[in-house]
Amino acid sequence: MRIHVRLAEPFWRTVGQRDLELELEDSAAISDLLAVLQGRFPALVEEMAQAQPHFFIDEQESGPETPLQDGARLHIVWPVAGG
């Protein structure tokens, strides 16, 4: 299945782009997607270890074990924002 990933600050700077398209197994969950991302971009391991990111699938907050569906739009955001 194909998943669209939108990375918020600071994750997108670590990866070098805000938007990614990933192909995953049909039974994949958010945790599986994270493993793929961290495998491709090892610097994300340290970034995400500092604080557990928040996940939103099509604007609904989700957890690491939430299953993904083909065509989903996953937004990964830093848990703290300031203004």
Task: Tell me what you see in this structure.
With 83 residues, the chain is an alpha+beta fold. It has a single domain (2-77), classed as Beta-grasp domain (Ubiquitin-like (UB roll), Roll), CATH 3.10.20. 29% of the residues lie in helices and 28% in strands. It has helices at residues 11-15, 30-40, 43-50, and strands at 2-7, 19-23, 54-57, 60-62, 73-77. A 5-stranded mixed sheet has the order 2-1-5-3-4, with no helix packed on it. The chain is globular, with a radius of gyration of 12 Å. The chain starts with a strand and ends in a 6-residue tail after the last strand.
Task: Tell me the layout of helices and strands.
Elements: E1 2-7, H1 11-15, E2 19-23, H2 30-40, H3 43-50, E3 54-57, E4 60-62, E5 73-77
Parallel strand pairs: 1-5
Antiparallel strand pairs: 1-2, 3-4, 3-5
In terms of DSSP E residues, the strand content is 25-35%
**In total, how many beta strands?**
5
Overall pLDDT level: 92
Rg over CA atoms, rounded to whole Å, is: 12 Å
CATH topology: Ubiquitin-like (UB roll)
Succession of helices and strands: EHEHHEEE
Helix content: 25-40%
Name given to the CATH architecture: Roll
Give the helix tally: 3
